[in-house]
C-alpha cells in the first residue's frame, strides 16, 4: 500500500485548521503521516519536512486547507504510471455567508480575471488532464518524494511561486504533471479587501523573481497587467491623439462583458457593480506586483530568508 506524508508549513504557534479535516481522511491510518513545519519561509519549511518524510508520496497542504476525505484515493491511480510525478487539483471556496469572499471567488474563477491559471480556483472539466504549473497550486499538490529530492526540491529564495518554478523544472525534463478535478481542497477566500490586494501583489512579485530564475516565453502574457499599469499611468500625461484611449475602451468593454457573464451565471444584478471593480483591482494589484518585483530584482535587493524552523510530527504512520 502506497504511503503518504502530508506536509503543512505554518507560522509559529499558528492554528492549523487543516488538522481537523485530516481526521476524516479515508485511508489506512497506518500508511500516512502528518508533518507540521513552523517557520517564516515556506519553501525552506517544506524542503526540511520532505527530507525527514517517510511516505512515498508527499502531499503539500496549507494550514487552512480542508481536503475531501477521498483526497489520497483520488491520486492513487495516476501514480501507477511511472512517468507521472505530480498530481494536484483545484482549491475551491469554502461555503460562506460573507459576500466579499463569494465575489472574489467569481473573479478568480474567471479566465478574464486570472487568465490561464483559473483552473486553480474552479473545477476545470470533468476529466483529468496533462497539467502545467499554471494549472496547479501548492495548497493541494502531491508528488513523488524520490523525484522531489532528485530534482533538488524547492528554490528556497522564492516565496511565493516556489512551486511554479519547481514544476516548470519538472516540465522541462519531461516528467508528467496531472490535474485531476476530483482532487479537491477547500479554503476560505479573503474576507478583507486589503488582504486580497496584498496576496495578488505578492503573486505578481513572485512571478518576476521566478522568471529571472527560470525564464520561459510562455510567461509573456503575464506581463500584460504590468504594461496595463504603465499605460493607465500614461493617460495622466497623454491626452491626444484620440486612439491612445482605445486600449482603455477595449478593457472596459471586456470587463463589462465578463461581469455580465457572472451576472448571468449567478442570476443577480448586484455583480454589475462589484465585478468590474474587482477585476480592475486584481489586474492592477498583479501589475504593480510585477513592477515592484522587476525593480527589486534589477536593483539587486534580496532579503535573506529566515531559516529558523521547528518540525512537529503530529501523526506518524506505523508500518
What is the typical, i.e. mean, pLDDT? 94
> Radius of gyration, Cα only, in angstroms?
20 Å
Distance between the termini: 10 Å
Number of DSSP-assigned strands: 11
| CATH top level label of the largest domain | Alpha Beta
Order of helices and strands: EHEHEEHEEHHEEHHEEHHHHE
Q: What would CATH call the homologous superfamily of the largest domain?
A: Spore Coat Polysaccharide Biosynthesis Protein SpsA, Chain A
Q: Which strands sit side by side, in order, in the main sheet?
A: 7-9-5-8-3-1-2-11
Q: How many helical stretches?
A: 11
Shape descriptor reads: globular
CATH fold type of the largest domain: Spore Coat Polysaccharide Biosynthesis Protein SpsA, Chain A
Main sheet characteristics = 8 strands, mixed
**Which consecutive residue ranges, at least 5 long each, have pLDDT under 50?**
none
User: What is the helix content?
Assistant: 40-55%
Q: How much beta, percentage-wise?
A: 15-25%
In the residues, how many domains can be counted?
A: 2
Structural class: alpha/beta
Amino acid at each position: 500500500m502506497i504511503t503518504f506524508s502530508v506536509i503543512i508549513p505554518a507560522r509559529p504557534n499558528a492554528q492549523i485548521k487543516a488538522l481537523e479535516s485530516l481526521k476524516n481522511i479515508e485511508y489506512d491510518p497506518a500508511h500516512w503521516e502528518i508533518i507540521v513545519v513552523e517557520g517564516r519561509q515556506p519553501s525552506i519549511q517544506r524542503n526540511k519536512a520532505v527530507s525527514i518524510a517517510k511516505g512515498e508520496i508527499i502531499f503539500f497542504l496549507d494550514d487552512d486547507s480542508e481536503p475531501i476525505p477521498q483526497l489520497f484515493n483520488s491520486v492513487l491511480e495516476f501514480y501507477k504510471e511511472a512517468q507521472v510525478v505530480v498530481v494536484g487539483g483545484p482549491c475551491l471556496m469554502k461555503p460562506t455567508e460573507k459576500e466579499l469572499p463569494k465575489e472574489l471567488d467569481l473573479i478568480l474563477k474567471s479566465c478574464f480575471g486570472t487568465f490561464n491559471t483559473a483552473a486553480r480556483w474552479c473545477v476545470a472539466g470533468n476529466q483529468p488532464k496533462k497539467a502545467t504549473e499554471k494549472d496547479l497550486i501548492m495548497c493541494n499538490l502531491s508528488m513523488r518524494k524520490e523525484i522531489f529530492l532528485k530534482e533538488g526540491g524547492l528554490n528556497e529564495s522564492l516565496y511565493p511561486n516556489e512551486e511554479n518554478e519547481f514544476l516548470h523544472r519538472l516540465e522541462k525534463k519531461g516528467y508528467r504533471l496531472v490535474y485531476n478535478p476530483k482532487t479537491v481542497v477547500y479554503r476560505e477566500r479573503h474576507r478583507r479587501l486589503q488582504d486580497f490586494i496584498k496576496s495578488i501583489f505578492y503573486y505578481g512579485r513572485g512571478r518576476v523573481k521566478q522568471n529571472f530564475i527560470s525564464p520561459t516565453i510562455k510567461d509573456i502574457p503575464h506581463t500584460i497587467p504590468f504594461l496595463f499599469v504603465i499605460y493607465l499611468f500614461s493617460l495622466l500625461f497623454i491626452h491626444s491623439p484620440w486612439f491612445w484611449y482605445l486600449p482603455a475602451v477595449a478593457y472596459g468593454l471586456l470587463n463589462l462583458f465578463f461581469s455580465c457573464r457572472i451576472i448571468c451565471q449567478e442570476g443577480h444584478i448586484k455583480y454589475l457593480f462589484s465585478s468590474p471593480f474587482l477585476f480592475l483591482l486584481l489586474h492592477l494589484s498583479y501589475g504593480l506586483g510585477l513592477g515592484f518585483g522587476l525593480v527589486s530584482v534589477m536593483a539587486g535587493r534580496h532579503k535573506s530568508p529566515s531559516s529558523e524552523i521547528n518540525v512537529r510530527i503530529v501523526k506518524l504512520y506505523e508500518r
